[in-house]
Amino acid sequence: MSGVPLIRLTDLHKSYGEGTVVNHVLRGLTLAVGKGEMVAITGASGSGKSTLLNIIGGLDQAYTGEVEVAGLRVMGLADKPLSRYRNRTVGFIFQQFHLLPHLSVVDNVCLPSWFDRSHDTKRQDLRVAATKVLTRVGIGHKADARPNHLSGGERQRVAIARALFNHPEILLCDEPTGALDSQTTETVFDLIVDLNKQDGITVLVVTHERDIARRCPRRVHIVDGRVATDERDGPVVNVVGAQAVTP
Amino acid sequence: MRFIGVIQAVLGNIGRNRRSFVLSSIGLVIGVATLTFFVHLGMGIQVGVLNRIFPVNQIEIEPKTVGIIGLREDVVDKSRLGAGLVREFEALPDVTRVYPKLRSKFQARLWGGQSLFGFPARTEAFFDGLAPDLVADELQRSERVAAKRAKTKLRRPEPCKQDDECRLGEVCDLATSTCGDIEYWKAFADHGMAMPCSDDAQCSEGLTCIVGLCQAACSATACGAGQACVGPTTARVCEETCKTNADCELGESCDVDAGAPSGVSVCRRLACALELPEDQMLEDPVKAKGRLTGRCANGVDPASPACEPLPCPGPSYCAPTSVLVATGYCEAPVPVILSPVLIELFNNAAATSLGMQKIDGLGAMLGVRFQLHLGDSYFAADLPKERQSTKRAEIAGFSQKAMDFGITLPIAYVEALNARYKGRSAAETYDTFILETEGNEDVSKLISAIDGFGMTLARRSEDARKAGDLLFILTVVFSFISLVILFVAGVNIMHTFLTLVTERRHEIGIMRAVGATRGDIRRLFLTEALLLGLFGGVVGNLVSYGATRLVNWLAEKYLSGIPFKPDEFFAYDWRVVVGGIAFACVFCLLGAFIPARRAARLDPAVVLSS
Prior knowledge:
The complex is a heterodimer of chains A (247) and B (610).
Chain A: E1 7-16, E2 23-33, E3 38-43, H1 49-56, E4 64-69, E5 72-73, H2 79-88, E6 90-93, H3 105-114, H4 123-136, H5 152-164, E7 170-174, H6 182-199, E8 202-206, H7 210-214, E9 218-223, E10 226-232, E11 236-237
Chain B: H1 3-16, H2 18-53, E1 58-63, E2 65-68, E3 71-74, H3 83-90, E4 95-103, E5 108-112, H4 114-117, E6 121-124, E7 127-130, H5 132-143, H6 145-154, E8 170-173, E9 178-181, E10 208-210, E11 213-215, E12 227-230, E13 237-242, E14 252-256, E15 265-269, E16 271-273, H7 285-288, E17 291-292, E18 317-320, E19 327-331, E20 334-338, H8 340-354, E21 369-374, E22 389-398, E23 407-410, H9 411-422, H10 424-427, E24 432-437, H11 444-451, E25 455-457, H12 459-503, H13 505-513, H14 518-558, H15 574-600, H16 604-609
């Protein structure tokens, strides 16, 4: 990793609730992620892992601090450019897959293209592109199936294919294997690792599974809304209260 | 959002929520169906019934009257109600034509209807006259001439030269030389009468009493185009020139006249005689034809005993000049039109009281002949016998413009008869006037203008205005009810869409996560609502169309006996159809607006983590 980080988070604060029952989830979190990194984000329940992912992904705009992704200041973006950012720059993978049950697998994968005004590809070409991505994730043969006819692992592959469809720079995975059995977990995560290694996609994985976290070259542990430890294969750097990691 | 995405998403959504889609469209369908049904009905009644009975561009006016100790008196000087006033009305702005109406001013009786009732019915005769072209359209409609012609076209054409070569009930159409159904409405025209007289005052304007008959006198140059001055030097008259008998009116013959310029033939009324003067009182159609005077079928000298008599030609009959004599002239029967109201009056009151058969439908009465006895009365003193005469009349059709209680003749007949019995001034005093205006514009200006002439709207036109206003109010009321239904449907749609937003909030979150803007989400819901509106609007129109067909069918099946029932109760207008669909869409969009806004404002981070 070198040069300007792809994701730069500075002094993020985020709280839920009002009055006396305010829950401070993020308390001055600062983090930088370089292009092509694969980062596991761990922490106890409610430590703000998913919130962090939502903020990076532009789904959550109610916070203070600064978020800069691929040179774009995400905070305060208007609805249209923010939606375009979600559409083009990041891809989400959720624990519960979040597929649309009434659409076929291939239409689910094409979903981002519905909201992508930048090009006007024909439906047939979109299907071809989607099938290609599905083949890449290993379920090209299930293109016309409905999501509810697929196994959990297959569904998550479809979700990955959807996240990949618009060639995002960053893959945001929120407990991607949380709903899968151990064997499927292995194969799905292999795929995610592969995408990082082969395609150079920057991957952020929120997980509470140690095995998964251990397979990521960099592991960020969040405690009380701050980065407690930031390990990477190699030297351990304690970053509590520190500035961004130096490359 | 790309169009393809919108369509795919919306169709997918409709596909999986078919039931709620159909259920929420029911209100729309009912609303649109009622709206278009009643608007089409209102327009249909306006166009098909009201405008035909009381055309919007025709108003009838009559002199104002004032009540003086229980009697009503005209405000206007009667002598003014003549041709001069017609010209003054014609000069009014917006007025295109003026049709005067003239009532009979003398006593008469009528009897006949043997073929209809089984015995001759008798009654006092009241009649009025109006211009034949005013009612031509209406007569054709009530006789269903278009249907008759269409039926004739379907048959193999039978060539003919004259009527008796065709089957019963058919006549020879000389234009195409083929047989066709009789069209009775054509008879309602001025065929002319031989009008006996003793001085010029007994003749209509422009005619002079020449050798006991009202005729157009001429000097050598004064005849009109297509006419020639004929007759002996003491009684020169203008007559129509002709080449064959077909060029002349019924009862006339195309002959070389002694007084005519050489080589010119003119139409002259055929003189005829009955066997006895009393024969004119009989209904017998054969005796009524009499025999032509001075002509024989075998061409021998008319004075010779070998002369084979010729009857009056075609449908004409021999009309003696008075009840005391047997000699007269061949004439076409006097064409008469009746008001459907009269038939209803007869069916509802007279037929029951008198033990007579009710008349079913108007068609059976067409062509029925009866006799008029002029100058004779059940109520008033008779005229002297030598001034009384009889005429045969034939029913030529039905019109709402005809006299409600009495019979209606072409105005020329009434003018001639009034002149004969009450003098020329009576012939020139009209009773009411029908003013025809340019278009359907507001006639209130015209009404105020005629007020200056001491005239006012006749009861019939006043009724028409009231009926039109009532119809308008009814249409507005029913349209309003339909709009209320649509409004309720809109509220129902709002409820449905609010439920849908809750049901789909997850999907909305997913779509937002993959790049949908708030506008995209709003658009998805509004497009779905629009499609729902289009669906409801189109189906509503189809339902409405089906209902209109059903009503027409039921009316044809069960209301066939009602005179002047229109074939079509509805007037279809694409603007109403489009308007119905537009209303459905608007109410749908209004109903879906708040839910769509709520959907767009959902926080994707919240819905995806819940």
